[in-house]
Amino acid sequence: MNDYSFGSFLYEKRKQSGYTQSELGEMLGVTGKAVSKWENGTAKPTTQAIRKIAALWGVSIDELLTMREEPKMNITKIVITGGPCAGKTTGMSWIQNAFTERGYMVLFVPETATELITGGVAPWTCASDEDFQRCLLRLQMEKEKVFLEAAKTMDAEKILIVCDRGALDNKAYMTQAEFIRTLSSFGANEVELRDEYDAVFHLVTAAKGAEEFYTTANNAARTESIEEAAALDDQLINAWTGHPHFRIIDNRTDFEGKMKRLITEIASFLGEPEPFEIERKYLIEYPDIKRLETLPNCEKVEIIQTYLISGQDEEVRIRQRGVNGHYIYFETRKKKISELKRVEVERRLTKDQYLQRLMDADTDRRPIRKDRYCLSDGSQYFEIDVYPFWNDKAIMEIELSNAEEEIRFPKMIMVIREVTDDDQYKNSSLARITKE
């Protein structure tokens, strides 16, 4: 999603001039924290401050005023993935209709594998499957760049880029060694490739739970049997496990119900009509880490979470998330609506913005470090947080689109009790508990 244009301008000018936020604030008659808020887009400068900024750097006051009032363009990029005969083609039509009505400009990045195969570039025409996957990934990445560049030129405040499969789908068709070599050839890493998408929605193949509707007749690139389709579906889920916003839509309802659940999940993520989450949290016995790390449907992520100074009714945190030295950064703002429902607004940060926001850290709380094990089990997606200060327990969370949804706990997890409403097990409280 794009950053607030005035904030980006101010940040670049300040950096070029070599000023700290405090130094610039003193020159403008405000605090360094005010400058920080202008730069990250959470507040706007007064007209008087605009005049001082214009004089400082010799720019037009009118230009700055226009930039300050410029509406924020939100570009969201999501992936619709799934096993063979899962309903993706129909899903795209539902997405087009549902989100155009909600005021979005909806753009579709077509499925790259089908384009290549129908054009004569296939695993059986290339020298090897690995060569085909390398070609596929290159074209996928370039197409997404083109769509993003085009989106930035459009006269729309809300743009939804929908990728018919994403870069991590390739992983399901390769061995781990082949996947690593392919990433290396692009100078890419798995964390950045996976998490550059804002959300991922997996439609489960009809070969799992709706076998009577499974067919290869409607896709010239599809050749899998029911058994192969079900196995591939599992591999695709495993490939995307670890993404911070991953949802699995199964076949427990009829097909129309499945499409409605897809739209509900996307709308909930986008915040239509408002950005909320329904989260359940459980205290569990300390899990078998070695076993978790051997599961193909489990992915470890390292997290450092820092709480910022915020108002009484709001919680603001920034997070470094990744593994093996590869990280991405987020800022999250939460406001409680009810015991289960909270308004949540999240935005991506650059590394520089993350480091900048650390200056607003709440010194009454210590940064929380934890290992998160993302576990996809059936159609549900669990996050198990293991903290360095506990050796007998951990926290497991699941986000739901419906407060009445039944939770089917993984058999290997021993639940002690639900702690959704227990303040002592909130990360913000744990930050205070662990402070020396």
Shape: globular
Quick one: CATH class of the largest domain?
A: Alpha Beta
Tally of separate helices: 15
Percentage beta strand: 15-25%
Describe the model:
It contains 15 helices and 14 strands. With 436 residues, it is an alpha+beta fold. It has 3 domains: 5-69, 434 Repressor (Amino-terminal Domain); 74-270, Rossmann fold (3-Layer(aba) Sandwich), CATH 3.40.50; 276-433, Hypothetical Protein Pfu-838710-001 (Beta Barrel). The strands form 2 sheets. An 8-stranded antiparallel barrel has the order 6-10-9-8-7-11-12-13. A 5-stranded parallel sheet has the order 2-3-1-4-5, with helices on both faces. It is globular, with a radius of gyration of 23 Å. The mean pLDDT is 88.
Summarize the structure.
This protein is of the alpha+beta class. 37% of the residues lie in helices and 25% in strands.
Task: Record the SSE blueprint.
Elements (H helix, E strand, L loop, with lengths): L4 H13 L3 H8 L3 H9 L6 H11 L3 H9 L4 E9 L5 H14 L3 E5 L2 H7 L10 H24 L5 E7 L11 H11 L3 H6 L3 E5 L22 H15 L5 E4 L5 H16 L5 E10 L3 H6 L3 E10 L7 E9 L2 E11 L4 E9 L1 H7 L10 E10 L2 E7 L6 E8 L14 E4 L8 H7 L3
Parallel strand pairs: 1-3, 1-4, 2-3, 4-5
Antiparallel strand pairs: 6-10, 6-13, 6-14, 7-8, 7-11, 8-9, 9-10, 11-12, 12-13
What attributes characterize this protein structure?
globular; 3 domains; alpha+beta; 436 residues; 434 Repressor (Amino-terminal Domain); 8-stranded antiparallel β-barrel; 5-stranded parallel sheet
